[in-house]
């Protein structure tokens, strides 16, 4: 037998308001606690096999959490002397005896005087046998009967309610009512403490039946309180897989994981609902005090992770999952669906799988694989040396923070991006940081966004889209049909070879042409400047030798709206096309370099412009 000890800890034995609210103030001295089932000697009925099994299962669970043993003893009387020498006696009584309909359980706490008057020193646990919750289906894990039995047993070990001041306990912050009141941080519900009267994940997925959806283990705050009283037990030290329930039905329940070793996994493979998997343990403070619920959408069951427990891996289901890593090296696999995956500070492996995923590496040297689909991969300053593979589809790499990046998408080896020595493959699109970035594209069609800072974006080959952002940028399209938007600032925009569409945006912009092959001689197929502002923007032709006839590097002559002549000097003229009644007005700039009256290059300006030589750098 164990000895009941009155600790009288006051209102804050640990200093943690959540843990202290669950500590009654008396406990057992340790060792082995004995219990027996009343055959009707004290109560109104003998225990059914199902009820006995539920009590035994509850004790088995508790033994995995704290270093106590529980031993069932036979219930014996005889010879006129009481010899039922156990620590706890369990008896069945009516709900009326317990206080009326809906009163389904009661348990004395360690140190209470026994309810018996015949010399029995055991404390009592009583259950309302005539309640429907003690039907066999309610006594399964997830059923209300099993949850009540476990709740009452924890009273018998010295736990209190979060909503009252039983023993020397305090009350959860902001809780003023026993039901429907979750407190300031939302912790007064079964998913965080089984001692709450708000069943299951009451705030998000309320329990709707007595047969499933309830709590089936001490939850994270209960575990913390029990271990503050009794210490910790080693449990589940191997490589364990915790499978997330994907349906509502018998056996669906909430549990808190107490796991003290191994390489472990939360697994949602085959679950055909969106899931949330957060590998962070309960930190015992704020809104995460009792941990983060791990569950599939609409399913009345799942997990939390108890304080100090480390779960290393997460595998998502077939739909869109949200997966959050922790501080150790995680394997995070989204599988199918449009997943959002955030790793923690460890050296993680992140796999998006099929679908359009958002993958965030955070700190640590991570391996990030997008898989199929259009993926978003997010990089942070100082996040380690990462290996990033976008996989199939057109994938994004997005940088955050104020560190400049230097990234070449055509470089398949390790490169110093400014965010680490990273290896980047199969990434098509990049969004820069808040600093001054240099981003170079590849042979495929890239989208390069500079965002903040004075950036240099070079599309290289492919039909690229370059967006400068807030400051003065250098934007080079390269080969291909490129779309270039300067944004704010005084931008330098070079379309390069191919038919390009260019917008300078706000600020005095310069549109650079370096060869006569940067556009064509056709008014139908030529480079287009969409927002040219005469007197503010400039067209820079200074890199082109204006005359193919004269020696040296010659400058162009501006002819205005006059025709091109046979002068051996290179000439520029323009023609306005007023498409009355439409939005198709345009101005063509004609460039000639060989004295044959025929233009060699055309640049189209959207709208009607009265150009002068000052609009050009000749």
TrEMBL record:
The record's annotation in Pfam families points to: HemolysinCabind, Peptidase_M10_C
Q: Which GO terms describe its cellular component?
A: extracellular space
Query: What GO molecular function annotations does the UniProt record carry, in alphabetical order?
Result: calcium ion binding; metallopeptidase activity; zinc ion binding
Q: Which Gene3D superfamilies does the UniProt entry name for this protein? A: Collagenase (Catalytic Domain), Serralysin-like metalloprotease, C-terminal
Q: Which SMART domains match?
A: ZnMc
Q: Does the keyword Secreted apply?
A: yes
Cited SUPFAM superfamilies = beta-Roll, Metalloproteases ('zincins'), catalytic domain
The Peptidase metallopeptidase domain extends over 20-184
Localization annotation: Secreted
Q: Where do the record's region annotations for Disordered lie? A: 451-470
The EC code for this enzyme is 3.4.24.40
Sorted alphabetically, the Gene Ontology BP terms of this entry are: proteolysis
Keywords linked to the UniProt accession: Hydrolase, Repeat, Secreted
- Main localization, broad class: secreted
Cofactors demanded by this protein: Ca(2+)
EC class, as a word, reads hydrolase
Q: Which family does it belong to?
A: Belongs to the peptidase M10B family.
The protein's name is Serralysin
């Amino acid at each position: 037998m164990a000895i009941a000890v009155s600790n009288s800890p006051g209102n804050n034995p640990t200093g943690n308001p959540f843990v202290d609210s669950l500590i009654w103030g008396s406990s057992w001295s340790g060792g082995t606690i004995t219990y027996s089932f009343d055959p009707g000697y004290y109560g109104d009925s003998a225990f059914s096999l199902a009820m006995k099994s539920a009590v035994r299962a509850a004790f088995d669970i508790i033994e995995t959490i704290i270093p106590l043993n529980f031993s069932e003893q036979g219930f014996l009387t005889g010879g006129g002397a009481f010899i039922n020498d156990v620590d706890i006696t369990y008896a069945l009584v009516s709900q009326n005896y317990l206080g009326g309909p809906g009163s389904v359980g009661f348990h004395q706490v360690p140190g209470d005087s026994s309810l018996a008057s015949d010399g029995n020193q055991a404390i009592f646990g009583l259950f309302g046998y005539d309640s429907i919750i003690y039907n066999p289906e309610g006594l399964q894990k997830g059923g209300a009967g099993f949850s009540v039995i476990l709740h009452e047993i924890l009273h018998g070990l010295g736990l209190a309610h979060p909503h009252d001041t039983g023993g020397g306990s305090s009350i959860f912050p902001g809780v003023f009512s026993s039901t429907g009141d979750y407190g300031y941080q939302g912790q007064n519900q079964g998913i965080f403490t089984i001692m709450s009267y708000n069943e299951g994940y009451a705030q998000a997925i309320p329990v709707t039946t007595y047969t499933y959806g309830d709590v089936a283990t001490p939850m994270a705050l209960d575990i913390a309180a029990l271990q503050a009283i009794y210490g910790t037990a080693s449990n589940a030290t191997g490589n364990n897989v915790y499978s997330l329930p994907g349906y509502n039905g018998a056996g669906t329940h909430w549990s808190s994981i107490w796991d003290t070793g191994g390489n472990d996994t939360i697994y949602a493979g085959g679950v055909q609902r969106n899931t949330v998997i957060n590998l962070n343990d309960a930190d015992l403070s704020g809104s995460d005090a009792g941990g983060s619920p791990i569950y599939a959408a609409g399913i009345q069951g799942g997990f939390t992770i108890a304080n100090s427990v480390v779960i290393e891996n997460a595998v998502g289901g077939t739909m869109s999952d949200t997966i959050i890593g922790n501080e150790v090296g995680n394997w995070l696999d989204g599988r199918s669906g449009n997943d959002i995956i955030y790793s923690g500070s460890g050296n993680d492996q992140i796999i998006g799988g099929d679908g359009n995923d958002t993958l965030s590496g955070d700190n640590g040297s991570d391996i990030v694989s997008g898989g199929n689909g259009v993926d978003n991969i997010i990089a942070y300053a100082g996040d380690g040396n990462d290996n990033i593979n976008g996989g199939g589809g057109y994938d994004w790499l997005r940088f955050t923070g104020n560190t400049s990046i230097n990234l070449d998408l055509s470089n398949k080896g390790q490169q110093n991006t400014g965010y680490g020595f990273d290896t980047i493959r199969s990434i098509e699109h990049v969004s820069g940081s808040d600093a001054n970035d240099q981003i170079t594209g590849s042979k495929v069609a890239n989208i390069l966004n500079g965002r903040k800072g004075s950036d240099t974006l070079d599309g290289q080959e492919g039909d690229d889209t370059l967006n400068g952002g807030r400051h003065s940028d250098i934007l080079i399209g390269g080969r291909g049909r490129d779309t270039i938007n300067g944004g704010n600032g005084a931008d330098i925009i070079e379309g390069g070879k191919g038919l390009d569409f260019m917008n300078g945006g706000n600020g005095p912009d310069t549109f650079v042409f370096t060869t006569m092959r940067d556009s064509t001689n056709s008014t139908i197929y030529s480079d287009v400047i969409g927002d040219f502002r005469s007197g503010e923007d400039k067209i820079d032709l200074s890199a082109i030798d204006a005359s193919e006839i004269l020696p040296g590097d010659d400058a162009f002559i501006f002819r205005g709206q006059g025709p091109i002549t046979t002068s051996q000097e290179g000439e520029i003229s323009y023609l306005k096309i007023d498409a009355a009644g439409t939005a198709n007005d345009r101005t063509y700039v004609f460039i000639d370099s060989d004295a044959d009256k025929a233009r060699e290059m055309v640049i189209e300006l959207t709208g009607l412009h009265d150009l002068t030589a000052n609009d050009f750098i000749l």
